[in-house]
Amino acid sequence: MNNDRSHFDRSPGVEQNESAANILSYTAGLVLAILLTIASFIVAQTNLLWGPGVAVGLIVLAFAQIGVHLVFFLHLGSGPDHTNNILALAFGLLIVFLVIAGSCWIIANLNANMMFTHPAG
Amino acid sequence: MGGPPPTRIVVAYGFWIFILSDIVMFSALFATYAVLSGNTAGGPTGHELFNLRNVFIETMCLLVSSYTCGLGALSAERHQQGRFLIFAALTFGLGAAFLAIEISEFAGLVSQGPSSRSAFLSAYFTLVGMHGTHVAIGLIWLIYLVAQVAVKGLRPAVLRRLLCFSLFWHALDIVWIGVMTLVYLMGVQ
After folding, report:
1. Residue A63 lies inside a defined structural domain of this protein
2. CATH says B55-184 is which class?
3. Predicted local distance difference test score (pLDDT) of residue A19
4. A74/B24 touch (CB, cutoff 8 Å), yes or no
5. What total number of domains does chain A contain?
6. Could you say which of A8, A19, A102 has the minimum Cβ distance to residue B74?
7. Which residues constitute the domain of residue A21?
8. Core-most of A94, A119, B37, B166, by most CB within 10 Å?
9. In sequence order, which residues have a C-beta less than 8 Å from that of residue B92 and are 6 or more positions away?
């Protein structure tokens, strides 16, 4: 990078200076992601986890894998040069959470209130 | 800290915002699927339809293609055009394999009954089909970029486009983790 400013801002997906470390970072990310994927399939198809806990386990594994992707593939860090990227990501995740959790909450309420087999009155 | 940031930073940041908006769009489809996944209207359920072996192969194709895409972007940064073309070809091949498996899976499902059989199936085809459409667009974009590299070489403007493509490709893999977990792994429970 030939501009002083690039020291202070960094965009997602842009690797840092040492290229040997970058290949290592991608490879570490690939290995971790494959392990987490295999763990997800094992949890889904065996009785390793207590039945009702399987969904929670799968969600935790999915979030772990998304974290691996963000750090090792998109090279998002926690340093000051990543503040803008992380803030944008945090806002995006807030909207995603509101849309998904809000929809599930509202429709679950709707279903609970509408699906009487014997309507009252 | 004076002066505007380099174009590369601005372009990648803008594209990052686009990717986040794309993920917000996907979140609406995820919410739709989560809400409707139980409404099978007496039709087939996910447990009867989904083949986890195919899903595992699809996941691995996409994951390894994300890896080769990263290595390709790295080679491009270092102006190793030959290595870049090899990794781009691998990325394309793995992405095309993913898409081929998905299309054959869709064809199998449609042959068993109309895709509008139940709200569950409509939501399934919309969510997974939207992800597949993104992969198909990514593959066309990759061909276009390889042609640009071949004609123009690895000049800064082409490198910025490659950076945007690799962000897009990694983001598709992140969306796939959600599809794999919510639709397939939780669908067969």
Report:
1. yes
2. mainly alpha
3. 58
4. no
5. 1
6. A19
7. 17-74
8. B166
9. B139, B142, B143, B146
